Amino acid sequence: MKISLMPSIMKLAQASNDTVHMVGKHGIGKSQVVEQFASETDTHIEILMLSQNEVADLIGMPYEEEGTTYWSQPSWLKRMHEASAAGKNCVLFLDELARSPLEVRQSALQLVLDRRIHEHRLPERMGIKTLVVAADNPSDEYQTDELDPALLDRFMSYEVEVDVDGWLKWARTKDLESVVTDYIAEFPEKLHFMTEDDKDKGATPRAWAKLSDVLRNIDLVDRGLIMSVINSKIGKTVGANFFHFYNNYAKVVKVEDVLANIGKAKIETQKEQEKAAKKLGKITKDIEAISANELGEKIKAGIKKGEVSYDVLSVFLESLNLEIMTTMIKAWKTDDEEFYFSYAKQVPDRYIFRKIVSKV
User: Fold this and answer.
1) C-beta contacts of 299-302 below 8 A and 24+ residues apart
2) 227 contacts 239 by C-beta, under 8 angstroms
3) For residues 185 and 34, what is the distance between their CA atoms, to the nearest angstrom?
4) Among 167-176, 222-231, 239-248, 287-296, which is the least confidently predicted range?
5) Where do the structural domains in the chain lie, given as residue ranges?
6) Residue 14 burial class via C-beta count within 10 angstroms: exposed 0-12, middle 13-18, buried 19 and up
7) Strands (E), the chain
8) With contact defined as beta carbons under 8 Å apart, do 291 and 253 qualify?
């Protein structure tokens, strides 16, 4: 399953008081989709990296009071109960479940089965129990143990994989550097790229996100070190290709290029619109579908911020290959109705808009 679909699965599991288990390669965004779910549903999230935990981290430390032994409440569980008391549902993310020590895994089993651990209970609010989500790497490719069938039987289990469109959508919300997102839009196969040479680390969605952070501060190092910095994040194989793209990024079609190409020319009449689209088509005629979609999303973002006009979007769409343009409009009509109808309301009499809509 595409990993971008998992927040929807988690919403279903939360409403159904079920649990979720994801299996997927490292760095593809398993943690991020749980955080995305929590953000979208205003749910409090606690993350336990079980491979680094001991049993005491889950059940608390024992103490004696009037001859009776009790266990103190772990800090992560205290935060969950405080969030629940403040009116929030909770999600507990058990990361690297299959890498954890056996005794930790056995303790985690109680969390999954009963939503409790030793003497402590996970919070429940208005009939909605704490959602438990676990994540692992494939056991046939990584040093992980096989999970007990009794444990797996209690999960909604999914094998998840990289989703380029979903990752680019996520990247826009995080304001990743354009050179990174434009590269992935042009070379989607490089989003998760593992080489046959074990000595080369390869590229993952997580590594690309971190590379964006590094590039934002790249002026702090000598220019001669840039390639080695890039290689340190995404490996030498992909790094060499990205470094070439980075050095030639001025040649990539960007929103700024669209605006500069259209310039200050009037684009209100049919003749003016067609002329502007024809001019822009000289730099967009060979653009690939995924790159065109990414550029379109950035123009949309500019419109929503009030930085770009709707007419610019119309001219951009008209400059594209017909198949690419209609696919983009259909996707907006399905996935972003609010924007689509806002667009229709703003430019109902524009020649290009009527021409575009007639093809969708």
Assistant:
1) 299/255, 299/258, 300/332, 300/336, 300/339, 301/172, 302/255
2) yes
3) 24
4) 287-296
5) 3-159, 164-251, 255-357
6) buried
7) 19-23, 44-49, 62-65, 68-71, 90-95, 116-117, 120-121, 124-125, 128-129, 131-136, 155-159
8) yes
128: pLDDT strictly greater than 90: yes
Q: How confident is the model at residue 231 (pLDDT cuts 50, 70, 90)?
A: very high
Give the bridge partners for 70, in sequence order. Answer: 63
Which residues contact residue 172 at a Cβ distance below 8 angstroms, ignoring those fewer than 6 apart?
181, 297, 298, 301
pLDDT digits (tens, 9 = 90+) for 180-197: 998 998 899 999 988 766
Q: Which amino acid is at 293?
A: N
The Cα–Cα gap between 302 and 193 comes to 31
Topology annotation, domain 3-159: Rossmann fold (3.40.50)
Task: Please tell me the distance from the alpha carbon of residue 339 to that of residue 329, in angstroms, as a whole number.
Answer: 11
Separation between Cα atoms, residue 236 and residue 242, nearest integer Å: 10
Share of the chain above pLDDT 70, in %: 88
| 203: three-class secondary structure by DSSP | strand
At 90-101, the pLDDT tens digits run: 999 999 888 888
**DSSP-derived secondary structure letter, 34:** H
Average pLDDT over residues 295-306: 86
The CA distance from 117 to 152, in Å, is: 18
Closest to 33 (Cα-Cα) out of 173, 138, 212:
173
**Residue 279 tokens, joined:** 């001019």
Q: Provide the 10 A C-beta neighbour count for residue 123.
A: 20
Tell me the angle at which helices 205-216 and 164-173 cross, rounded to the nearest 10 degrees: 30
